Amino acid sequence: MKRKREESSKGILSTAAPPAKKRMVVTPWRDIAEFSAVYDWLFSKQTTPANRRKALSQMRIWSLRRGSLCPASVLATGVLVQAQLEDKQGNPNIQTTYASAFTRFFNFMSSIMQGFNMTSMYDTAKQLGLQSFIVDLRHLCAHGQELPPAEVLRHTSEHCIEWLRHYYWLPQNETMTNLDAPKLQRKDKAAFEKELRTLMEIYDLALECQLMGAEKLKAVSKLKSSTEFNKIRVYCSAKKIKTTTEILDKVISDLNSAIKRQNSSMKDLLDIYTASVLKMKYFLGAGLKHTENEEVVIQATQNLFRLFAVQGYIENIFVAFVQLAENPNADDESRQGASYWATKMLQTFGMLRKMKRMYTEELDKNPNTKTVDFTTLNKSEISKLMRTLLIHSGCDLTLTLVFGECPKKPRSWVFEREFLMNRVDPLTPHSVPIFNSLLPLVEPPLTAEQRNDLTKLCDIKIQHINQEKTKNPKNLPMDDQTDDKNTLEGTTFGIWTLEKDNNWTTCALGVLPTNLSEIA
């Protein structure tokens, strides 16, 4: 037993202390190299007045970068070095310069601590590791009738510079490390991303259940797996709700609150939000899975699009759908779903444009016409005049997404020609409905001839794509694929050479651009 105790005690004694936890600090210097350069200019044995002036200039830059957040030790070093350089240049008022620098030095360093009155200055100096005579000298410089001799101030400044080196500069230079910025993720960003992912997942599950006819939790439990049902059950328990309709409404409310809580300076907020929307698989394909009951899909998702409009993200969501439909690396189901929703949104844009035109015409005829606020379309209750405009827009309201403008970002719901022409090159069978729906919304408007030409160009490209698929079907035997590759080997496109491997996703340049003039 004694031997075991000795061994256990030895084991305890030999246990190494846990490593100190590193802190992340925003510094005024760019990296360690910049800090080390200033350290060498200040404290190297071979340093020169020119090097110290360079160090002083760099410290002033640091002060400008961070202002009041610049480290007090850096500011304290700067005032002392400035005084020493003026002393070297033969400043006739060197006593006053040193006295002012010395007073500011102590004030900078005492600001690190809590005490600021005279009775606590000795305690402050003790906590900092400064001798008590520094406090006495500071008092003489700030309040004395006569300044201390220049020689005393000169030696004291050298002592304080050396103290600063051991107190601040040397520990920082030896322990500081550069931050690997790409691996850094803000805690608020990670929390926001997790919150959005959870809410979108709940929305996607609840939407599927509602469209499948499972309104209450008992029906949901029979439709979904135990894991998915448990997520819905926990959410319902926390929010005190019982039906899928209530879940959809509550998720919309929580999404709105989550966006409002975020600081507008978060650069990735919109990217995170858009990515979360595109990850809702059932939502993307809902319109294609329920073609016979499309009005039910529109009704269930109406509030989600109104939320996008209120938040000012409707245009960004639309562009994300367009890009997904054009993305050759995405799966067909996601691309078809994105095309469906983008086309539906374009129908709404066209409806809003027509409603505005009708309202303008009515206003020209009757200046006393009531003012119409198109942001009210994002609410369930709208004015009588707005309802009249909706009816006369000619759209089937049961099959059309009804949303309005963002209060902060009103727009005309038209697209520049450049946006349309940028859709030609990545055109795919999935994006053709989007392209055709864009034609009447282009500003300045296209002539009938221009629309016909673009439609023909669209048809030619799709025909070419279909011919390529016919020549190279994915299910060909390996021998047939080899023969086709051999016939294409050696084909060149200017500086480009067609490789045997047609997987362009591995190419850093993306995909081989199509020359539309050759196709035509």
Describe the structure.
The longest helix has 34 residues. The strands form two sheets. Strands 1-2 form a two-stranded parallel sheet. Strands 3-4 form a two-stranded antiparallel ribbon. The protein is mostly helical and 520 residues long. It contains 23 helices and four strands. Helix 3 packs antiparallel against helix 4 and helix 14 packs across helix 17.
What key phrases describe this protein's structure?
520 residues; mainly alpha; two-stranded parallel sheet; two-stranded antiparallel ribbon; 23 helices; 4 strands; disordered N terminus; disordered C terminus
Ordered list of secondary-structure elements with their pairings:
Layout: H1 2-14, H2 32-43, H3 49-66, H4 72-88, H5 94-110, H6 118-128, H7 132-143, H8 150-175, H9 187-211, H10 217-223, H11 226-239, H12 244-261, H13 269-278, H14 281-289, H15 294-311, H16 314-326, H17 332-365, H18 384-392, E1 415-416, H19 417-421, H20 432-438, E2 442-443, H21 448-471, H22 478-488, E3 492-493, E4 496-497, H23 516-519
Parallel strand pairs: 1-2
Antiparallel strand pairs: 3-4
Helix pairs in contact: 2-3, 2-8, 3-4, 4-5, 4-8, 5-7, 5-8, 9-12, 9-13, 9-14, 12-15, 13-16, 14-17, 16-17, 17-20
